[in-house]
Amino acid sequence: xxxxxxxxxxxxxxxxxxxxxxxxxxxxxxxxxxxxxxxxxxxxxxxxxxxxxxxxxxxxxxxxxxxxxxxxxxxxxxxxxxxxxxxxxxxxxxxxxxxxxxxxxxxxxxxxxxxxxxxxxxxxxxxxxxxxxxxxxxxxxxxxxxxxxxxxxxxxxxxxxxxxxxxxxxxxxxxxxxxxxxxxxxxxxxxxxxxxxxxxxxxxxxxxxxxxxxxxxxxxxxxxxxxxxxxxxxxxxxxxxxxxxxxxxxxxxxxxxxxxxxxxxxxxxxxxxxxxxxxxxxxxxxxxxxxxxxxxxxxxxxxxxxxxxxxxxxxxx
Length: 317
Hints:
- The protein is mainly α.
- It contains 11 helices and 2 strands.
- A two-stranded antiparallel sheet has the order 1-2.
- α3 packs antiparallel against α10 and α9 packs antiparallel against α10.
- The longest helix has about 35 residues.
- It is globular and about 60 Å long.
- The N and C termini lie far apart (about 60 Å).
- The N terminus is likely disordered.
């Protein structure tokens, strides 16, 4: 994003901050923190359930699921932190902003890859049940998660290297409004990320479409149970919705810059709606898809929550 776009955005955001009253600012931040706390408690209970039962460690499906839960928790924590400090401090030290933004980008890019990995695991489990244990092993699952982290980390790292090569080091000693487009402003970074997103997200979309389409066909052919077919179809729809919401994180920043440029009076409203749409709503889907719909995990998850609540009640009394 070039400076001609960045400067108006910065001015619009600054003007928006000055225009908002204390009650509006307080309400927005309290809502963001409450949502973060709620989802963090839900996700931490899922991680606790996973860690408490050893047999989950031996199932690649649950390993990838818990990796996505942890990834989403870190992402939500970072974006909520960035949202709150933008109101509390407005400008922060660029080096601290760089760390927060890079990790936020890493976790944002991890989620679609993990979704693709989970789709492939379900595809092999249903379409090749006799070979699934040999194809999807715990070791290969951990290697896949490591590869996803490495591939996702390469994108913010290249952003940093390009900025270090083309911008003065004084940039990282200054104070800025903490946003990716304001920190990494070189036009080549925007083009590089655009190409990467187009190639990899298209590949992930095709992977999800093919695997779940095959799963539905196999389920329809193997069983006359309409309920099973309906459940498989609903799973496809939920995964498709989750992927589309994840993909918003890649297209919304450019859309947000465009909208703020032409509607500067509503800069903070646009920013807040995008925050809810891109980072908050998708975080509700993972518990719904896997925590509530998976009968095996739900059984132990509910038991874990009840035991924790009983312990808290006894401690209070």
